[in-house]
Amino acid sequence: MEVPYPESAMVAGVSEPRQRRVPPEPVILVHGYLSPKRFLLPLKWRLERRGFDAHLVDLSPLAIRDVRVLAKQLAVSVERVLHRTGAERCILVGVSLGGFVALCYVKEFGGADRVRRLVAMGAPFQGTWFALAGVPVFGAVSRGVWQSLPTSSLLSDLRAGGSPVPVTSMVIPGDVVAPPHRCTLEGAEVVTLDRTWFPAVHQWLVISGKITERLADLLMEEEG
């Protein structure tokens, strides 16, 4: 289901937009392959300025391990955040492979009861051939690089039947790591962002303040 940008939120027959609010749940940011959690600090800070309670997670260094191992680590981080905040559920934002990890947690490790919704940013659920570039260097030590390929049985398992929680997939044209047509998932809405001329298109998902604003708008709830 394609959602155009900008999104309209009008009441039928009324010209004024509905009132919207920051959701009460903490927002947990899940970083991707070869990325430390610090890479998501700008995203965290910008969301916090919008009033969100944003958190980073502790995954294995550079998140190169088996996705299921990372999903178990995410489960521990989620429980810590929920305990610390007193919340019953959270919102997950998974960037790149972080989207796989988040979906794996939701489907296989009890996350469906702890997650209200998942937003995936540049997460190629259909797999990406770009992962082949990492095989010569990391293939011997990283299960995750193999699990990111279109031939991955893990991704096939995760795609089967869609997700038990609502999923939004944010994509950007020209992203060679996560081409929009490879970021689809059964039942998920797809939000296509504006094309950029920034050379590192995939990283632009996190770097761009405009994209963070779009993410924040997606996460806002309607009152009443």
Concise synopsis of the structure shown:
The chain is of the alpha/beta class.
Question: Which SSEs are present, and which pair or pack?
Answer:
Layout: E1 2-3, E2 20-21, E3 27-30, H1 41-49, E4 54-56, H2 67-85, E5 90-95, H3 97-108, E6 115-121, H4 135-138, H5 143-147, H6 153-159, E7 167-171, E8 189-192, H7 201-207, H8 209-219, E9 221-222
Parallel strand pairs: 1-8, 3-4, 3-5, 5-6, 6-7, 7-8
Antiparallel strand pairs: 2-9
Helix pairs in contact: 2-3
Please provide a written account of the structure.
With 224 residues, this protein is an alpha/beta fold. The protein has one domain (23-216): Rossmann fold (3-Layer(aba) Sandwich). 33% of the residues lie in helices and 16% in strands. It has helices at 41-49, 67-85, 97-108, 135-138, 143-147, 153-159, 201-207, 209-219; strands at residues 2-3, 20-21, 27-30, 54-56, 90-95, 115-121, 167-171, 189-192, 221-222. A 7-stranded parallel sheet has the order 1-8-7-6-5-3-4, with helices on both faces. Strands 2-9 form a two-stranded antiparallel sheet. Helix 3 links the parallel strand 5 (90-95) and strand 6 (115-121). It is globular.
